[in-house]
Structure formats: structure tokens, C-alpha cells
Design brief:
By secondary structure, the protein is mostly helical. The chain has one domain. It contains 14 helices and 2 strands; from the N terminus they run ααααααααααααααββ. It has a two-stranded antiparallel ribbon with strand order 1-2. It is elongated and about 80 Å long. It comes from Neobacillus rhizophilus.
């Protein structure tokens, strides 16, 4: 649960920022701040997840430490985002064990490998783990197709169900208290903002991360990770189509679309995650929250492990090591799925909803205000600041 002290200090900082407005127009956060006269707890949660941690505002601000105002929005919002992952997760007991402890993924990864080894031994015995498999359906000679489908269908439902529960709770808190409803235009615009990572672009110049020099490199690394992950999902979906609709089971040759999508996705994730880790190592620790930084690093490394083990499995799929490598890779995927609702993996669902909410605010703010001149209504100007 978010601490009262943190929320109160956040409101103090936002009131000062709203009075200063030096960062006006920097990103969606500062526009949203200007549309408010004061700030609630839910406003702080919304603004924290709308923030992309570009840090432009910090490097521009004349009131950062050692000034008595101590303004530091990147650190404030990082702390609030970490609280978001715990607050909206369900069941909350897992949020504490898997989310607050950065070792959660690694512990789950260890048990995931043990589970996969047990499933392999239980379905195909030691030959499934230790002998080379080649030809059509080779993977299923290690682990039963039915067992693999059931295990990862359950994990997928757990992951998506956790995200949907969190999204429902989060949206209930940040949605407009006014009568305005979300419309299709808001969803389209919010999705566009999310897919383009617009607010990591600094209006073309890039963001001040990891140093005070503007750069677009972080945005590029984020794109590689995001679209690499989407390509891997597309590979998995296409593989399911080939296996269950066309009845052509894996493994497929390297030139097959399923494999090519997986390779491109894996390479994108590997390059992107390594790049983000390098940038994190170079970033100023005074600007960020230590706990949030370690949590983010743990998540990035988890994605890197999944991608690397998948690529190694591809390279060694016709060797005697295939069974063990399959257990390791599937164990890493199982750990990622199981911990997904409680770690930084959940950040994209909250940021996506925050961007849709922002698109709604943006639309409302630019709606003409209807006033009456005599008996005739006349549209003039736009809605006043603070309407939201």
C-alpha cells in the first residue's frame, strides 16, 4: 500500500511544479498537472504511471536538491510505480513474496526448472531428458504435447488474469470522476502513444537518460525489447496455428516463418535488454529510487534469460542436450509468467491505461466551451484548466 508520507510529499512537489510551470509542455505528465488545481492520492498514482522516466524535468528544474524544495519527480514517480505493482496485484500475498523480493524470479525459475524436469521424466522418462531428438514432433518426445499445453495454458491464464484484475482496480481509481466516458478515439490515441513510446522521444531530441545529454538510444532499446517480445508472441501463435490447425508439429527448419519470427524477436530482446542494462549502470542513482532501479534490473535480466535460453535451445535442438535445455528454457518462461502480475512486467498495462486516460483528458481539454450570448449558444475557446 502506498505510504501517506510519500503521497503527501508527492502532492507537495506537484503543487510547487504547478506553480512554477517551467516544464510546461515537456511531456504528458506536465500537461496533466496543469489541468489540476490540486492532487488526490489517485492523481498521484495516475501521474506516476503516466511518467516514462525520461528525466528531462529533473535536469531542467532549478529546485532540485540541494534546494530546500527538493524537487525530484523521477524518484518520486519511480517509488509510486513500485507501490502500484503491489497495491493492485492479486492475490496480495504473492505480491509481497514475488514483487518486493527481487529474488522472486530466481526462486521461481529454480522451481520452474525442477517442475519441467519432472514433467519431462513423467511423460517420457530419462530418454526425454538425456537423448537426442530429431524429426517431426521432436520436442514432444521430451515433454508430452498435452502436458506442455496444459501447463502453459494455466500459466497464461494466471498471468493475464492477474493483469486484468490489476487493470480493473487501477482504472477504477484513475478514471474521470466527471460524466465523460472513454471513447474509441481515446483508445486509438492512447494506443498510438504507447506503441510509439512518444514520451521517451523528447519531441525528437530524446530524453536525458542516462546523462543530462539528450539521446534517443533508450527509446530505441525499449522498442527492440517491446517489438521483440511481440514477434516472439507472433511466433508462438503462428506455431500453434501450424501445429493444431495445419497439423504440422514443431520443430521447424530455420527458414520457416515460425522460427524466423522467433529469431528476430529473440535478437531484439537480447540487444534491447543488454542496452537497457548498460544505460542503467550509467544513470545517476540520485535521480532514481534504489528499490525501483533494482526491481527494473531484475525484470530486464529475467527477459534476457528467457531470450538467451530460447536461442541456445534453437541452436542445440538436435543434440542430446535438448531435453535439459528445454527444461531450462521452459522453466524461465514459467517463472516469467508466474511472477508477471507482481513485478515490473506489469508496468506496461498500467502505463497503457494511464495513456488512454491522458488521451481522454487531452480531448476534453480541447473541446469548445459553449456559452450563451442572449438566447443563442456560442462555442468559444476550450475547457478551462482544472476541469478534470
Amino acid at each position: 500500500m502506498q505510504s501517506k508520507e510519500l503521497l503527501d510529499d508527492g502532492k507537495r512537489q506537484m503543487r510547487l511544479c504547478n506553480a512554477c510551470r517551467y516544464c510546461e509542455g515537456y511531456c504528458a505528465v506536465w500537461q496533466s498537472i496543469e489541468w489540476r488545481r490540486d492532487f488526490t492520492d489517485n492523481d498521484m498514482t495516475y501521474l506516476a504511471n503516466l511518467c516514462h522516466d525520461c528525466r528531462d524535468c529533473y535536469h531542467a528544474c532549478p529546485f532540485t536538491t540541494p534546494h530546500e524544495f527538493g524537487i525530484n519527480p523521477p524518484k518520486l514517480f519511480a517509488q509510486l510505480r513500485e507501490d502500484t505493482y503491489r497495491k493492485y496485484a492479486s492475490p496480495r500475498i504473492f505480491a509481497k513474496v514475488l514483487g518486493e523480493k527481487r529474488s522472486g524470479f530466481w526462486i521461481t525459475f529454480f522451481f520452474g526448472i525442477i517442475l519441467m524436469v519432472a514433467l519431462i521424466l513423467g511423460t517420457n522418462g530419462t530418454s526425454g531428458l538425456l537423448e537426442a531428438k530429431v524429426g517431426t514432433g521432436a520436442f514432444y518426445k521430451s515433454m508430452s504435447e498435452a502436458v506442455m499445453i496444459i501447463a502453459f495454458l494455466a500459466l497464461g491464464i494466471w498471468m493475464v488474469g492477474g493483469w486484468l484484475t490489476g487493470m480493473s482496480r487501477f482504472w477504477k481509481d484513475i478514471k474521470s470522476a466527471k460524466s465523460e466516458k472513454i471513447i474509441g478515439k481515446d483508445i486509438v490515441k492512447g494506443t498510438k502513444y504507447a506503441l510509439s513510446l512518444r514520451y521517451l522521444g523528447g519531441e525528437g531530441a530524446g530524453c536525458n537518460y542516462p546523462t543530462d545529454e539528450p539521446s534517443t538510444i533508450r527509446r530505441k532499446f525499449h522498442h527492440l525489447v517491446s517489438y521483440g517480445f511481440m514477434l516472439d508472441l507472433a511466433s508462438t501463435a503462428l506455431g500453434a496455428f501450424y501445429a493444431h490447425i495445419l497439423h504440422i508439429p514443431a520443430p521447424y527448419p530455420v527458414y520457416h516463418p515460425v522460427v524466423l519470427l522467433g529469431i528476430l524477436g529473440g535478437i531484439g530482446i537480447i540487444i534491447g535488454t543488454i542496452g537497457l542494462l548498460v544505460l542503467k549502470a550509467k544513470s545517476d542513482p540520485e535521480i532514481s529510487d534504489e528499490k525501483a532501479a533494482k526491481s527494473g534490473t531484475s525484470f530486464i535480466v529475467a527477459l534476457l534469460v528467457v531470450a538467451v535460453t530460447g536461442m541456445i535451445l534453437l541452436l542445440a535442438r538436435e543434440t542430446a542436450a535438448m531435453g535439459i535445455l528445454l527444461a531450462i528454457h521452459l522453466g524461465s518462461v514459467a517463472a516469467l509468467f508466474f511472477t508477471a502480475p507482481y513485478t515490473k512486467f506489469a508496468h506496461f498495462v498500467y502505463r497503457y491505461l494511464a495513456l488512454i486516460r491522458y488521451a481522454q483528458e487531452e480531448r476534453i481539454a480541447h473541446q469548445p466551451v459553449e456559452v450563451k450570448v442572449g438566447k443563442q449558444p456560442v462555442k468559444t475557446g476550450t475547457t478551462v484548466a482544472g476541469k478534470h
